[in-house]
Design brief:
Strand order of the largest sheet: 1-2-3
Number of strands: 3
CATH topology of the largest domain: hpI Integrase, Chain A
Structural class: mainly alpha
Number of domains: 2
Shape: globular
Oligomer: single chain
Low-confidence stretches: none
CATH architecture of the largest domain: Orthogonal Bundle
CATH class of the largest domain: Mainly Alpha
Distance between the termini: 49 Å
Strand content: under 5%
Mean pLDDT: 87
């Protein structure tokens, strides 16, 4: 990751003619950013999520850094990802929906329960790939796992007797997450009837397979999500991580305690999970304004 920072600094110096002072500040901020991610157990730039960026910025705030300095760091990170996208090094920008000055409160858009239900209804259940897609989307929403965790699941990741999955999160940390009846039923049907037909003559324990009988890539799953979002006609920005955010938000809205949500998400620091309480507070305000006679 430090190599990409060096390449970006060279780009700014040679092609953009950025001043030496700005280069030094950006280099310092971005190298600290990379070190923070490495300390969280993240090995590649592609694995950094909005949660990680928010945790990094929240850590800067805890350290006493002023808002202007945090905003400068965020500006550096934002420019860095524009470069990475242009060079096709990453496919998604984890800072796209993080606002300056409100970084410790802002999350990418979550879906309402009705919107999530609409999205989950889109896969065509009469086809092999449609049933596979339905299972993956249901499982993402039911468990809040990351895309990298989803595509790494194996047949042995599922405990069929109790109804939970075991996943390996960031930093090699294992955690157990309940699946829920709807996702569990879809998963059982997929494993029994769909996966063997996708597997063909291949030998792999990977749970979710593409049409060639091999494991899905992150980009492949992103295309699947984009396809079904387009079918709904929704104008919201929805990406694979939206399922994780919606999972956490809907749990808290339903009365789940913060500590349990933290465990299921695999957050090391509960301050990262606390960001979701802001979302639920904002939604409560909207409900009050809409339905209260004095709202």
């Amino acid at each position: 990751m430090h190599r990409y920072v060096d390449e970006y600094m060279n780009f700014l110096a040679v092609e953009k003619g950025v001043s030496l002072n700005t280069l030094e500040a950006y280099s310092r901020d971005l190298n600290k950013y990379v070190e923070f991610m490495q300390n969280r157990g993240i090995k590649t730039i592609e694995d950094i999520t909005p949660d990680d960026v928010i945790a990094c910025l929240g850590n800067l705030r805890k350290g006493g850094l002023m808002a202007n300095s945090i905003n400068r760091g965020l500006a550096a990170i934002r420019g860095f990802y524009k470069y990475l996208l242009r060079e096709n090094i990453v496919d998604e920008n984890p800072v796209a929906n993080i606002e300056l000055g409100r970084v410790w409160m802002r999350l990418p858009d979550t879906l309402s329960r009705a919107e999530m239900n609409l999205l989950l209804e889109q896969p065509e259940m009469k086809t092999l790939l449609g049933m596979r897609d339905k299972t993956m989307l249901e499982l993402m929403y039911a468990t809040g796992i990351r895309v990298s965790e989803l595509i790494s699941l194996t047949i042995n990741s599922i405990n069929w007797q109790v109804g939970y999955l075991v996943t390996m999160g960031k930093g090699g940390k294992e955690r157990i997450v309940p699946i829920g009846k709807t996702a569990f039923d879809c998963l059982h049907q997929y494993v029994e009837s769909i996966r063997p037909r996708l597997l063909k003559e291949n030998m792999t324990s990977i749970l979710f397979l593409n049409r060639s009988g091999k494991g899905l890539s992150r980009q492949g799953f992103w295309k699947i999500v984009k396809k079904y979002v387009n079918k709904t006609g929704m104008r919201k920005k929805v990406h694979p991580h939206t399922f994780r955010h919606s999972f956490a938000t809907h749990l808290l809205e339903g009365g789940a305690d913060l500590r349990s949500v933290q465990v299921m998400l695999g957050h090391t620091d509960i301050s990262t999970t606390q960001i979701y309480t802001h979302v639920t507070r904002e939604r409560l305000k909207d409900i009050h304004k809409k339905y209260h006679p004095r709202g």
